[in-house]
Amino acid sequence: MMEHFVNRKTFDDVMVPNYMPQSIIPVKGKGAHVWDQQGREYIDFSGGIAVNALGHCHPQLLRVLQYQSKRLWHLSNVYTNEPALSLAKKLIECTFADKVFFCNSGTEANEAAFKLARKYAYDNTGPEKHEIIGFTSAFHGRSLFTVSVGGQKKYREGFAPTPKGITHVPFNDISALEAAISDKTCAVVMEPIQGEGGIFPADDDFLKAVRKLCDQYNALLVFDEIQTGMGRTGHLFAYMDTEVVPDIMTSAKALGAGFPIAAMLATDKVARSLGLGTHGSTYGGNPLACSVALETLNIINREDLLANVTRKHTLFRKKLERINEKYSLFKEIRGKGLLIGAELNPPWHGRAKEFLSAGIRHGVMLLIAGPNIIRMTPPLIIPDKDIKTGMKYLEQAVAEIYDENK
Ligand code: PLP
C-alpha cells in the first residue's frame, strides 16, 4: 500500500520541523506492545501521550470501527447521527454535565470552552466580564487562545498579538487567585493535575477554595480533563475524586482511545449561551469517532478497570522507587493512577530527553514532561507482566546513562 520507502530521514526532508521524533518508526501495535520497521519490539509506557487507554488495536474497538466503517463515515452537522447522540447521552449519564459539544482535538474542546465562558458572561452580565484566569505551567493546547490561557510563555513566543483579557497565577496558590479574581472574571481554567507542566496535582483545599471564589465572583470553573480524564487517574474523571464539580469540562485524548475526538461538556444553564450558529465544527460528532468513543467509555467506566488503574499505580511506583534506591535519580515520584511523573534530581536537570532515547535503545517507550521529568501514561489495561518487563528495560536505560556519567 505504501508508495515510497520512508524512514526517519524522510521526516527531516518532508515535514515541518516543529517535532523531533525518535529514531525508530513504529509500524504495528497490539495491547501495550509496539513493533518498529525492523521488527524490534517495545513496551509502550507512553500510550500515545495518555491517548491509547486501551492499548493498541483493542479487539472491541476494532469490531466497532469495522462495523461503523461499513455503515456511515461522515455527515457534517447539517444532519445528526446515532453514534453522536448515543455518546452524548452516555457522557451526560456518567458526569455532572447536561449538554455536550463534539470536536476533534483537545485544543478545539478548550477553544469551545473558553469561547462559551466569555459568551455566557456576555449574555448574562455584559462584555466587561470577559477576563479568564489560568495558571502558571498549565497547558491547554496550541491555538492562539489556548496557548494564551496556558501558562507557558515559550508556546506564545513569536505569535503575538495574542488574545487579551487573560491573567496567570501560580498553581495551588489561593492568595494569588484571591488577588487576581474580580467581577470582571468570567472563568478560572485549570487541569486537576497539570500534565505537560510536570505532573503537579491540585491540592484538595486549593480546589475547594477555587470553587468558592468562582461562586463568589460569578465566574465559571472550567476543568481541562483532556489528560486526566477517561480513567487515567483511577476515576472516570479526576474531579470525581474531589469535592469539586466544574461548570464546564473538556475531554479528548483517551476519549477516542486513538481515534481523534474531543468533547466539551457543560451544565444546561451555561450551554445555552452557545446558541444557534455561535460555534461549530465540520467533523465534530463524526459517526466513526463517536462509535469508537462510546465503546471506549463503556469499557473504561467500570469499577474493576478503574480499581486496577490505582493498583497498577502502586506497582509502577514500587518499581520506580527500587530504581531510585540504586541510582538516586529521582527527587520525587508524582501522579495518580497511570499518570506518573518522576522528577530528576538537580544534577540530572535538563536531561529527561536522554532517558527517553535510552529507553528506546532498551525497548521501552517513555515520555517526558518538560526537561526534568520522565513521564509515563501507559494503557490503562497494561498487564502487570508488561509493567515489570518495561521497568526492567527502563532500569537498563538508566544504568546505561548512569555508567556513562560515572
Ligand atoms: N489540554 C491538556 C491538559 C493536554 O494535556 C493537551 C495535550 O497534551 C491539550 C489540552 C491539547 O490537546 P490536543 O493536542 O489534542 O489539541
UniProtKB/TrEMBL annotation:
Statement: the UniProt record of this protein carries the keyword Transferase: yes
Cross-referenced InterPro entries: Ac/SucOrn_transaminase_bac (IPR017652), AcOrn/SuccOrn_fam (IPR004636), Aminotrans_3 (IPR005814), Aminotrans_3_PPA_site (IPR049704), Class-III_PLP-dep_AT (IPR050103), PyrdxlP-dep_Trfase (IPR015424), PyrdxlP-dep_Trfase_major (IPR015421), PyrdxlP-dep_Trfase_small (IPR015422)
Listed GO biological process terms: L-arginine biosynthetic process
One Pfam family here: Aminotran_3
Requisite cofactors: pyridoxal 5'-phosphate
MF terms in GO: identical protein binding; N2-acetyl-L-ornithine:2-oxoglutarate 5-aminotransferase activity; pyridoxal phosphate binding
PROSITE patterns xref list: AA_TRANSFER_CLASS_3
Manganese is among the record's keywords: no
Keywords: Aminotransferase, Pyridoxal phosphate, Transferase
Entry protein name: Succinylornithine transaminase/acetylornithine aminotransferase
